[in-house]
Structure formats: structure tokens, C-alpha cells
From TrEMBL:
Gene name tied to this protein: Tmx4
All residue ranges annotated as the Thioredoxin domain in the record: 1-86
Naturally occurring in which organism (per UniProt): Columbina picui
Keywords: Disulfide bond, Electron transport, Endoplasmic reticulum, Membrane, Redox-active center, Signal, Transmembrane, Transmembrane helix, Transport
Organism domain of life: Eukaryota
Location in or out of the cell: Endoplasmic reticulum membrane
InterPro entries: Thioredoxin-like_sf, Thioredoxin_domain, TMX_domain-containing
Name of the featured protein: TMX4 protein
Length: 146
């Protein structure tokens, strides 16, 4: 979820109720703020918000059902998740490819922080920051090419 997302704000009371009932369902319910954890949004290939996953024994399934408390509970209690096809191996959050995707999301956040530091703290013009990144990319490419 993301705090600014209207759909996430709409489901939040239901999700909190579902989390309170989780002990009775013998499950663990959690939520992740993708603005604070961008690597996880890359690892889970989050393209829409909110995105709900069911994980059991290292097998991930994306929940696409109704978002009422009764339907969420029924998904678990009636084991409806067994009829849902697991996320493909290469797209599984535990796969090497999705670890790499998470790394790219972390790298983009790091680049954004450097850009904000250059423009905000040091007062370099935006185009100057872009020029620094272009130069760094070229030099890194030359160095790796050697």
C-alpha cells in the first residue's frame, strides 16, 4: 500500500479488521508501505495498489478477489487459495530475477537521493545534476570496459 493511495485508504479499515482476526485464522497479516520499502515493490512486481499476496510455504499467490472482510476470511478459511495458480517461478518474490528487480528499485532510490542532495543541498542546477550523472555513467562504462 501507499499512504497517498485512495484505494489503499478505502481498504485500510477492512485490512485492520482482517489483521485483528488473523490469530483466529492461524495466519499472519501484514502490510508494507512501498514508499518506505521500494525494494519490496520491485520484488513483488507491484503495478497496482493495493496489491495483496497470500504466501504459504514459500509459494506466493496474488489475491484478486473481493476486498470485503468476509471474502478475505473465506479465502483463508475455505482454502480458496488452493485454486489460485501460484506466481510463476521467475516472477516469484524469492526468485533471483526479483531480487535483481528489488536491487534496481533500491538503486533508483539512491540515485534520487543523490540528485536531491546535488540540487537541494549543494544548490546545483537540475541540468548540472543531469550532466554529473551522464559523466559518471560514461566514466563507469569506460572503467568497466577496461
Amino acid at each position: 500500500y501507499a499512504p497517498w493511495c485512495p484505494a489503499c485508504q478505502q481498504i485500510e479499515p477492512t485490512w485492520e479488521s482482517f489483521a485483528k482476526e488473523s490469530e483466529h485464522l492461524d495466519i499472519t497479516v501484514g502490510k508494507v508501505d512501498i514508499t518506505q520499502e521500494p525494494g519490496l515493490s520491485g520484488r513483488f512486481f507491484v503495478t497496482t495498489l493495493p496489491t495483496i499476496y497470500h504466501a504459504n510455504d514459500g509459494v506466493f499467490r496474488r489475491y484478486r478477489g473481493s476486498r470485503t472482510l468476509e471474502d478475505l476470511q473465506g479465502y483463508v478459511l475455505e482454502r480458496k487459495w488452493e485454486a489460485v495458480e501460484p506466481v510463476a517461478g521467475w516472477k516469484s518474490p524469492s526468485s533471483i530475477m526479483m531480487h535483481g528487480m528489488a536491487g534496481l528499485f533500491h538503486l533508483s532510490g539512491w540515485i534520487r537521493q543523490i540528485h536531491n542532495y546535488l540540487t537541494g543541498t549543494l544548490g546545483i542546477h537540475v541540468w548540472g545534476s543531469y550532466a554529473i550523472f551522464i559523466l559518471a555513467t560514461l566514466l563507469l562504462g569506460l572503467f568497466l570496459g577496461l
